[in-house]
């Protein structure tokens, strides 16, 4: 029995040891499974990264290919442009050399022309001196002195031309003044004849009286101004009465819906001061505030019309007074002339135009 118990205990111990080993193996397997799962996840991440890197690599290779193509095109273009620039530079160099040679030729021609011009100036100066009757010097001591003399001669010649042009302009002004003088002489002679006709009572004199014409012109201008002012006042009055008529029409339209509610007030039509007095003294008509306002407005308009009419009458009286004053002054002048007229005076008046005509 003891042996069996020991065997059982031994078996239990072995079973416990095996159980522990089994648990350890299970833990190890679980840990290995977790590690395997983690490794699988890492593998998937690495695969995804590898795919991303491959795609990036492909895109980079494509971009690199495009850049290489663009670089080749740019190199070809730069080479062609460089060749064109080199050709242009060579062309401009040749043109520059040609222009320099042309400039040198022009400078030589300029020097030759200066020499020719100097020779021509000397020839012209000699010709002018010979023409003026002077002596010609065959040789000069110095070229600078000769050039200075030629310059002075040209300045004098220019001044002479200016003086000739001034003389021509002065002669033209003189002719214009002579024409104006002749015109004034003719005008004076004509006025002298007219004055002699007036003083001698010749029928060829001017028939109209200038003073009367001027006065008549002033009178007509004053009447025209008065007529214009009256027309303006009439226009203002018509506009005012038009507004009043429109206001009366609006009031009648506003009162028409209330006709069936009660007794209608009699309409008030004011034309002059007499009707206003009758309206105010009448007890049969009841007036409200609007009627009193309308009557006040009409009275103000009538006062304004009276003031305007008074102003027009004052202006007309002023014009008539000025006209009367002018007539009285003319009558006084005629009276003085008639009183101062005598045979001696008439003889003097007759002799004066004769002397003026002479």
From TrEMBL:
Record keyword Coiled coil present: yes
Entry protein name: Coiled-coil domain-containing protein 149
Tree of life domain: Eukaryota
Coiled-coil blocks: 1-244
Secretion signal span: none
Pfam families per the UniProt record, alphabetical: CC149
Record's keyword terms, sorted: Coiled coil
Family per similarity comment: Belongs to the CCDC149 family.
